[in-house]
């Protein structure tokens, strides 16, 4: 397509559309530096063409924000999302689902920055617009509910978190089937609620069920499967088995490096490995103290 445009000299909307689609491809592949450069060019060309207020430009600003978030550029992403939201309100009017998408995206930035109270405000602002335009059982509604649930959990509102996560789980099961990976994601989030409630046996069962679903649908090598295994190993450490957790997490760390898994996931694995090694060392110190031998 690019070669054809070059030969014909076509510019304007076809060229911009091609650049945006190319950015989407790189974003899905995880190369967000390339995606970012393309999205920036898209927005710049739109502005030069006098289309800064177009709804299409606003959507492309959301794409730009998504790449910025993936690269940890949270302040820049907030600017992109807020510009998109303001433009969409001016061009589409209040309540449109595209506005809700921009609002929810702002919530994602706040959540990624640990600003959970502000994130919750954004997610709860987006939810009724998604429900009104798309219906109460749309997948966008389920995703927003899951985001609300996670923010509520981080804020210690565990009953509220469980309620919205259960509703999200019900929507995913109805729309996608009971063994879909999104159901597994809900189960993992519910397990985190159980951990906060000190209900560790239930948390372990939920994590294991999530792992089984992901293994069945995604295969052993998928990053979501690695995440589930990490969650189980981390719980094992917290339940007083750090030595066993070290072995499991070391295997995950080796796999993550070998397969070049997502950088954030690799960081989480190494953090948990450090925690497990520390706990194992502390346990060994306590065992030596009990035995009275410095080498026990």
Strand content: under 5%
* Count of runs of 4 or more consecutive helical residues: 14
Give the structural class: mainly alpha
Main pleated sheet: none
Distance between the termini: 69 Å
How much helicity do the residues have? over 70%
Over the alpha carbons, how many angstroms does the gyration radius reach? 23 Å
Spell out the helices and strands N to C: HHHHHHHHHHHHHH
Oligomer category: single chain
Please tally the β strands and state the result: 0
Low-confidence stretches: 1-10
| Average pLDDT | 91
Overall outline: globular
Please give a quick description of this structure.
With 296 residues, the chain is an all-alpha fold.
Overview of the molecule:
This protein has 296 residues and is mainly alpha-helical. 82% of the residues lie in helices and 0% in strands. The chain is built from 14 helices and no strands. The chain has helices at residues 2-8, 13-29, 32-48, 55-70, 74-92, 97-112, 116-134, 139-154, 158-176, 181-196, 200-218, 223-238, 242-258, 263-291. Helix 8 packs parallel to helix 10. The longest helix is centred in the last third of the chain and has 29 residues, at 263-291. The protein is globular, with a radius of gyration of 23 Å. Mean pLDDT is 91; it is low at 1-10.
Question: What's the helix and strand layout?
Answer:
Elements: H1 2-8, H2 13-29, H3 32-48, H4 55-70, H5 74-92, H6 97-112, H7 116-134, H8 139-154, H9 158-176, H10 181-196, H11 200-218, H12 223-238, H13 242-258, H14 263-291
């Amino acid at each position: 397509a690019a070669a054809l445009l070059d030969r014909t000299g076509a510019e304007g909307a076809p060229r911009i559309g091609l650049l945006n689609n190319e950015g989407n491809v790189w974003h899905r592949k995880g190369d967000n530096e390339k995606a970012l450069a393309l999205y920036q060019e898209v927005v710049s060309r739109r502005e030069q063409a006098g289309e800064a207020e177009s709804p299409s430009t606003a959507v492309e600003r959301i794409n730009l924000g998504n790449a910025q978030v993936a690269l940890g550029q949270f302040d820049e992403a907030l600017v992109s999302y807020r510009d998109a939201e303001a433009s969409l309100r001016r061009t589409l009017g209040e309540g449109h689902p595209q506005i809700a998408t921009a609002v929810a995206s702002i919530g994602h930035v706040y959540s990624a920055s640990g600003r959970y109270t502000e994130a919750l405000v954004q997610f709860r602002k987006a939810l009724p617009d998604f429900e009104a335009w798309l219906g109460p059982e749309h997948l966008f509604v389920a995703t927003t509910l899951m985001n609300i649930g996670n923010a509520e959990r981080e804020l210690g509102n565990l009953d509220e978190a469980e309620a919205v996560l259960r509703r999200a789980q019900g929507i995913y099961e109805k729309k996608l089937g009971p063994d879909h990976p999104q159901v597994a994601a809900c189960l993992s989030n519910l397990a985190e609620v159980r951990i906060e409630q000190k209900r560790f046996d239930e948390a372990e069962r939920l994590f294991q069920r999530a792992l089984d679903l992901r293994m069945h649908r995604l295969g052993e090598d998928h990053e979501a499967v690695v995440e589930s295994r990490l969650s189980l190993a981390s719980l094992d450490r917290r339940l007083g088995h750090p030595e066993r957790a070290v072995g499991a997490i070391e295997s995950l760390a080796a796999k993550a490096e070998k397969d070049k898994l997502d950088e954030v996931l690799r960081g989480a694995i190494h953090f948990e490995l450090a925690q497990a090694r520390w706990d194992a060392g502390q346990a060994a110190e306590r065992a030596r103290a009990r035995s009275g031998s410095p080498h026990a």
